């Protein structure tokens, strides 16, 4: 299923497959490719790559943070934050379905040697009283809780946007206990587009945040970690220790600048297409989906058809040139992005109809 055949770019059909697996499959725009070809580069490890510096400066400005660091992946950005904000043995409170806990190969325990304390954030929204009840204080049998992580938008919770009020309440709690907050904002610009709340408002209530350039923003590679100056300087050292330092990285950073300059405003189109898809497929047998919770570009639904398994359904979709991902034995995810058009939505709806009815 991983081999997606492409046809000539000049052909109107663009793709044989409509790829809903993730917004990470987006291809760089022509403007990005041109910027990459003409990028001013230097050795970033030595501080000579002016394109990387420009990207980092722009990212700090857009997030309202003091400083920023370009890293190869969102996972590395998250792990750098955990490493800097904690000490070995500390506890980290986070959602049981968060990317940091669920998709990063136990990295917080391997790299930072901290103990995750997973809680159930309903719809990705932290329950402040539950978090307070689970904060550990230093004692003869425990270390302390030093970090709380939050994810916005929340991938496994269907792209839900965490309300700003939750950030305010969490900040107040963490101030009382002297605990840091890290925001996994892989899709924070989707959260801003859906809620109308600027990224700078969310960032006011956290100590650090990261966002991905390679998802809805459509750059080919990279993420940004943002935070205070001294935090970023420590992150720069740990990036090198983990093998994440890059040399003439301006070649790829140039695409990130284009992404931040020209791709944020169109994210609402992806959200509208996701809602349109959800509204239609929810009508078919076997699809359990609360369309009122479709806020951004992610559609996750339970598949409970009486005669077709999840695996069989995905195979049937594949035969009709539709790609999607299984999130579990009973859950399927569709993600819209800049390379998904209205025609792809119509194609997917028709495939559902033919398979399920």
From TrEMBL:
Co-factor requirement: pyridoxal 5'-phosphate
Keywords assigned by UniProt, alphabetized: Lyase, Pyridoxal phosphate
Family annotation (SUPFAM superfamilies): PLP-dependent transferases
Domain Aromatic amino acid beta-eliminating lyase/threonine aldolase positions: 19-301
Protein name, entry field: Threonine aldolase
GO molecular function: L-allo-threonine aldolase activity
Similarity remark: Belongs to the threonine aldolase family.
NCBIfam families, A to Z: GntG_guanitoxin
Keyword RNA-binding set for record: no
Gene Ontology terms: cellular component: cytosol
Record-linked InterPro entries: ArAA_b-elim_lyase/Thr_aldolase, Low_specificity_L-TA-like, PyrdxlP-dep_Trfase, PyrdxlP-dep_Trfase_major, PyrdxlP-dep_Trfase_small
Lyase listed as a keyword: yes
Residues that bear N6-(pyridoxal phosphate)lysine: 215
């Amino acid at each position: 299923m991983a081999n997606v055949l492409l046809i000539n770019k000049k052909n109107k059909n663009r793709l044989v497959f409509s790829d809903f697996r993730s917004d990470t499959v987006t291809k760089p725009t022509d403007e990005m490719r041109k910027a990459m070809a003409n990028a001013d580069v230097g050795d970033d490890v030595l501080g000579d790559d002016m394109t990387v510096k420009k990207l980092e400066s722009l990212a700090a400005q857009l997030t309202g943070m003091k400083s920023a660091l370009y890293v190869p992946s969102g996972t590395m950005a998250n792990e750098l934050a955990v490493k800097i904000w904690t000490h070995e043995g500390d506890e980290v409170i986070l959602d049981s379905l968060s990317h940091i806990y669920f998709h990063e190969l136990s990295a917080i325990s391997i790299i930072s040697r901290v103990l995750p304390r997973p809680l159930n954030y309903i719809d990705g929204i932290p329950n402040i009283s539950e978090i307070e009840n689970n904060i550990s204080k230093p004692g003869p049998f425990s270390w302390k809780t030093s970090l709380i992580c939050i994810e916005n938008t929340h991938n496994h919770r269907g792209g839900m946007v965490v309300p700003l009020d939750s950030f305010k309440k969490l900040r107040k709690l963490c101030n009382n206990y002297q605990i840091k907050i890290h925001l996994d904002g892989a899709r924070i610009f989707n959260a801003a587009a859906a809620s109308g709340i600027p990224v700078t408002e969310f960032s006011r209530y956290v100590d650090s945040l990261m966002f991905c350039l390679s998802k809805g923003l459509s750059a080919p590679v990279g993420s940004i970690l943002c935070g205070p100056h001294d935090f970023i300087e420590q992150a720069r050292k740990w990036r090198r220790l983990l093998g994440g330092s890059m040399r003439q990285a301006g070649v790829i950073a140039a695409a990130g600048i284009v992404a931040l300059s020209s791709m944020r405003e169109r994210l609402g189109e992806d959200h509208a297409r996701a809602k349109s898809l959800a509204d239609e497929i929810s009508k078919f047998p076997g699809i359990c989906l609360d369309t009122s919770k479709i806020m951004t570009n992610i559609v996750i639904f339970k598949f409970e058809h009486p005669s077709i398994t999840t695996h069989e359904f995905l195979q049937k979709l594949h035969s009709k040139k539709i790609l999607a991902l299984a999130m579990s034995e009973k859950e399927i995810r569709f993600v819209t992005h800049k390379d998904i058009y209205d025609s792809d939505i119509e194609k997917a709806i028709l495939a559902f109809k033919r398979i399920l009815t």
